[in-house]
Amino acid sequence: MSSQHITGRAGGIVTLPPGDPEREAAYEHARGCEGCTRELEEAARLIELLDDAGRLPPPSHETLNRVAALVAADPGETAPLRSPWPAAAGVVLGWSAFATLAKHHSHKSAAWIESLIALGIAAATTLLAKRLGAWGAVVVCVASAALVVATGAEGDLAVRLGLKCVVIELVAAALPSAAIVRGILRTQSPVDAGELTATAAAGALAGQAALQVTCVARASMPHLLAFHLGGVLLAALLGGLVARPLAQAKAAGRRT
Known about the structure:
The chain has helices at residues 10-14, 21-30, 34-54, 61-72, 85-101, 109-127, 129-132, 134-151, 159-187, 193-211, 221-255. By secondary structure, it is mainly alpha-helical. It has two domains: 10-54, no CATH class; 85-255. The longest helix has 35 residues, at 221-255.
């Protein structure tokens, strides 16, 4: 009889096929060793439990039919994914319209470069608005403030002109926001207040970018702070406020 104990090896031994020399030697030793006998018995019970757990019943006909229906379903029947590109196109459209239709244009290349950089930030934020959420609005507001700091100097508030500038930024904000709202309603995707806030702010930044090359008061710090930056902040606020009534309208539509 072998005198070697099987401590720690019982699990492997019981899985060996009958007639294996190592298995036979272990069981021969266990006949005279109470501790090794107990280990082999516990290991055998554990293997039986694992075998029982692995014997799962076959799927029912109902389950198989449901899986087959899903596989055969027309992909066109599923809800389409909502693309951010229409909103980004709205940002570019707003900038293009206000930058080209204005009566006055800057002849400084630096102003156009600043305008295009701001437009790029606005478009990129719109594309990433769903991922960035409210942080996208923070990025846009920081970019708006940086544009003001880079441009502004002493000057007048120009209130009447400033109100016109705010309207331009709000209209520019409405274009991508409308695209987002249309996408939400078309795909029945959830309403994200952060996404709407970032998108509206990005649209307003595109409007500010257009004003960078068209506004006659673009060098006046008081005007820029109150109306150019203020318009972006106001657009972000309004974008966030739209989320709740939009969600309520969607819920009412589902009930009817």
